[in-house]
Amino acid sequence: xxxxxxxxxxxxxxxxxxxxxxxxxLKAIFPPYGDLKHRSDWQEGSKLETGFRAIVxxxxxxxxxxLLLSLFALLAKNLVPTCLIWFVxxxxxxxxxxxxxxxxxxxLFDRLRDDPARPHPMASLTRTLLLTSINFFExxxxxxxxxxxxxxxxxxxxxxxxAAKAATPCDALYFSVITQLTIGYGDLKPVGWGRLVxxxxxxxxxxxxxxxxxxxxxxxPQITTVLGDGPTELGNPKSKxxxxxxxxx
Length: 249
Fold this sequence. Notes:
The protein is mostly helical. It has one domain (about 5-35, about 45-220). Helices cover about 60% and strands about 0% of the residues. Helix 5 packs antiparallel against helix 7. InterPro entries: K_chnl_dom.
């Protein structure tokens, strides 16, 4: 009887085993991405349950985006009490961890958890790629919220010492965009612990792009090649190569 692949991870790689269980814990902490209770009639209800999970995930993703947008607007209007600034930044950080664990689990670890006897199909590859694109812009917004929470940590490069002016809402959003895209023009710079936040955003943005590319490539259809070295031909003695045909154009 086939077993989930994760049961053999520990014997092959300690690093992979450790990372797997760390992200399994994170997956359980952040609903609705954590596994919902399986139905007893899984085979009959799998499509229904997958559809329900898909809707829940989309609702939560949209709710998070609206929440971050609302927090940014409140900060821009100076409507957040000083005593709650740290909590706003904490919410943004919480969403950051959620996005990272979801992306890593979908690309790397979810397939290791699948039980061959009780498959958990993905709702749609196209939908997953679209949600990933939304997450990319969400990362920009949540880091902008952090920068705007403590605007004194993003200043103009031409300002010196006490003359440095705190970032405006436009500055915070602009700085978040150019930091995530790594195309800084030198007009704004982080200071203090803002340097740490900017460094984290650069690293997260880079890793996120890699995960997006991996997800996109995995969604591409299998290709039959002229030479016979495509993914459907390698290691498959039954596959047929067309390289020996005389009518190759």
